[in-house]
Amino acid sequence: MNDTLLLVEREDQIAVLTLNRPQVMNSFNFDMLRALRDQVEALRFDPDVRVVIVTGAGDRAFCAGADLKERATLSPIQVKEFIFTIRNLFTSIEQLPKPVIAAVNGIALGGGTELALACDVRIAARGASMGLTETRLAIIPGAGGTQRLPRIVGKGKAKELIFTGRRVDAEEALAIGLVNEVCDPEALLPACKKMAGMMCETGPIAIEQAKYAINYGMETDLSTGLAIESNAYWVTIPTEDRLEGLAAFREKRKPVYRGK
């Protein structure tokens, strides 16, 4: 059943993961969470995939968060398990050693916005809307939203959005830095694939180390962050890819990086 809840498409070095429950606005139930978790872990060690794109099926929703119909049937212990599972899943996406792009094709609420926040880059279709609306259900964002949103849009704006449960449209999301780009709906996946293609031209070890340095350096003071960057740089020096980059520059050709 999990195969139908998550569609996986590969194109060159790009994997597109599509949440496939359009009849319930691609909301998360336990089975979808587990399907996405298993696929993310498989991609972690797949050298043939350089960039991951996450999107939702249909044109209405990216992901409307948790499936509240399922939630109503869960015991308090099962709710804790759900939150534990989704929080760890989004952390694993954030820590994936390759870029992850969220193609926000429609409504992204609660866990849907939290999924997008865990991705490295967010591109939204015009007409999409995003929001951490949990306080309107007398709960709080539980899959990283209270931590990732202020790191992206600032503490004051994050408090405003979380305390009010207000949704923002794609244009406001772009203005506050919640998304990187807004495009017409039909251009969304092509725009994501274009950006992914540019990422695929770079050195995979360099991307892995740059992501590591950014993610962990942001959590420290500047001096410690610079030390993290320095150590990440040292990892790239003995690689075959670095020598290939220099050779390609000298020979005026495109480099062919192999992640070695």
Summarize the structure.
This protein is an alpha/beta fold and 260 residues long.
Please, could you describe this protein's structure?
By secondary structure, the protein is of the alpha/beta class. The protein folds into 2 domains: 2-200, 2-enoyl-CoA Hydratase, Chain A, domain 1 (Alpha-Beta Complex); 204-251, Lyase 2-enoyl-coa Hydratase, Chain  A, domain 2, CATH 1.10.12.10. The protein is built from 12 helices and 10 strands. It has helices at 2-5, 30-44, 68-71, 76-94, 111-118, 145-153, 155-164, 170-175, 188-200, 204-217, 222-236, 240-251; strands at 6-11, 14-19, 51-56, 61-63, 100-104, 107-109, 121-125, 129-131, 168-169, 181-183. It has a 6-stranded mixed beta sheet, with helices on both faces. A 4-stranded mixed beta sheet has the order 4-6-8-9. Strand 1 (6-11) and strand 2 (14-19) form a beta hairpin. Helix 4 runs parallel beside helix 5 and helix 10 (204-217) packs antiparallel against helix 11 (222-236). The longest helix is centred in the first third of the chain and has 19 residues, at 76-94. The two termini are 37 Å apart. The model has no long low-confidence stretch (mean pLDDT 94).
